[in-house]
């Protein structure tokens, strides 16, 4: 069994892209490297800040009273700000995440039998499949985005307009209209938009697989507890050996709890921002599509498909978080049920009472939170969709 190979299998897609973005928390890297600013990270941050987000904020101010234009600009800013926040937080907590990845690598290296490894591989495969779906939606969004903007660039160049339009209009300290300044600036802005989709997919997949790995560890721990109780009930081990192994299980359980808290502490604040922006994002994208259909606006099919894939991608992101967090919550509470369902009734009263340490520690479920205002779950997913549709109704009422 090759632990590094298994780790690369689990984090295959997110590992490659996070490395290219300069924020991959490599467990094999030296600690000194994490105190240096990675050049790839600096380049991406500069492109996003100066060629995407600043122009978008300027366009909101210049949109005036055009509601449709304001909604389109805010939706674009939301998506960009989400990506920038996730990238920065991943870089800022890189040392903590490296410690966490080292723990994950250790889990693969110290798996005691094929059953534990198969459980981890099962969840790793599930995470890979969900990540792959996320990247598929991101790739579709990326393709429509590239085609739409290359089409505009071609029209601007071929028509030889006096005022050529950029992807995101902004007054740069150089002559944008002059060739090749225009083409270079346009392509940099397109690359910035591409980075947004890559960042969102990569960070979301990274968090998703981390949470599912913790789920696998909880299942392995529950099975180990059940086997331990069975061994004592069958008199295969002594009471002192049972207490020793139970203490190891309790310590392992505490270690998993600390790891989940590390994940939550790193991303909780940015996920609060994410939930708020995703709610408005879904609302704004749906409003744009609804307005185009009801007002019979003449737009290209390419832009329509882009808007639809945009909305689908945002919903897919939210679902990934809620699905993995719901699974974690279920498995963490399942530790208490595991202690209850084993053959504790065949143990001596003193040995059976020792199981209560596991039960008490499992009463508080492990959660991924959005700040201190909400917990990711399928209930949150439904509530967010309902809230977004409520905002949509209000916007349509104001528009009429």
TrEMBL record:
One of its GO terms (cellular component) is plasma membrane. GO terms for biological process: signal transduction. Keywords: Membrane, Olfaction, Receptor, Sensory transduction, Transducer, Transmembrane, Transmembrane helix. The chain crosses the membrane at residues 37-54, 130-148, 186-212, 271-293, 299-322. The keyword Transmembrane helix applies. It holds the Pfam family 7tm_6. One of its GO terms (molecular function) is odorant binding. It is found in: Cell membrane; Membrane. Signal peptide: none annotated. It is a multi-pass membrane protein. The lineage of its organism: Eukaryota, Metazoa, Ecdysozoa, Arthropoda, Hexapoda. Belongs to the insect chemoreceptor superfamily. Heteromeric odorant receptor channel (TC 1.A.69) family. This is Odorant receptor. The keyword Ribosomal protein does not apply.
